[in-house]
Amino acid sequence: MCQFLVLFMGLLLLAAHGGAEYSQDDKLNILEELESLYVEDDDHEVIDSANISWDERSANVSVNVDSFGASGDGISDDTEAFVKAWNTACSTSNSVFLVPPGRIYLVNATSFKGPCADKLVIQIDGTVVAPGEPSNWDPKLPRIWLDFSKLKGVIFQGNGVIDGSGSKWWASSCKRNKTNALQALTIDSSIAVVVKGLTIQNSQQMNFVISRCDSVRISQVLVSSPGDSPNTDGIHITESTNVILQDSKIGTGDDCVSIVNASSNITMKRIYCGPGHGISIGSLGKDNSTAVVSKVVLDTAFLRETTNGLRIKTWQGGSGYVRAVRFDNVQMLDVANPVIIDQFYCDSPTECKNQTSAVKISQIMYRNITGTTTSEKAMKFACSDTVPCSNIVLSNVNLERNDGTVETYCNSAEGFGFGIVHPSADCLNSQDKDCTLSDLTISTRTPEIEKDHIAHTEL
Question: Name one GO molecular function term (predicted).
């Protein structure tokens, strides 16, 4: 309520200076809906599962992969032992699928399928590594490494490492070879899942994928791949709802977080991103497809030396919408494109043809966004002439460049701002489809966000 009162007072001040295309009621209605975006921490039964730790179940059945013949020497193939242990753990109530500490397990592409008996914990304390040679991969599983599917009420936890051994894969990445799009850890078609404390590193391509899931909580996860590794998205969310990602550190060669089609009620809190391509919604609408993403909140993040900051990217020719998105309390350090909406996204070796249809983008708020950029255009709203972006809200934005002035670029984008907005985004209110405005002076600085709980070290 207090935040909304502050917003209301800000709008009164804005009204005193004149509002271009939005009435006072319009603005209040937009802000009220954006303020309502929030997924409570205790939402859904996923939290009931999270409150039961492995230690509390120590009197129950422990299914240790070593007991099924795993050698744990990092050389012998332990795939068969993992499959046998999984079959036992999955069929036994109150069981713990245990990968013990201090050992390295070489596991080939494997699918771990449910449904399973009640109250299964997947306890990973050791290191699981993938084959380093692409030629050794199972041709029957060309797109996955560790795939968990059809689970309900399951906890993934531990201090262990999932290592994709991806260096030789990066040379044949799908950026160069479209038949090759490997995912390291995948949780698919599952409900009420908790993932806590794991490290996922050196993925072949996408590090961690949440696909077709409902009610997922991810916390205290470390994702690490080199900044020049291609297509190694940190956490990729697709066709999923009610996902909470918090207190996690992600450094990759692609998007730290990517949210794509048929995803809604996504909340991200206290996220560190860098290196990488930022936090992205999209890409969406490729090959004239329909895409829908809604109700996404990022609250408190630090982005360091990323190529993008807060990005929404869509292809020409698509349809559907992105709406009801709020970015709050984000600090950036030397980010190339801090705020960007790109409806002309074209990740293709050939030029993309112009098309009139587009994924509609509306009701997007950027609030308390501060820091430095390495580019002149600190904010870019490059929207479709036929399907313009609308209801973009800027509040207390302060982006600066160490060695020059900064600008805002707009094409077919409409919205409003209040409080500090630097660089000026008056072009959101302009009748011109294409304009660039610079703001050379600013009298006050937005306070820095509280970030003591985020470690600012390089991955």
Answer: polygalacturonase activity
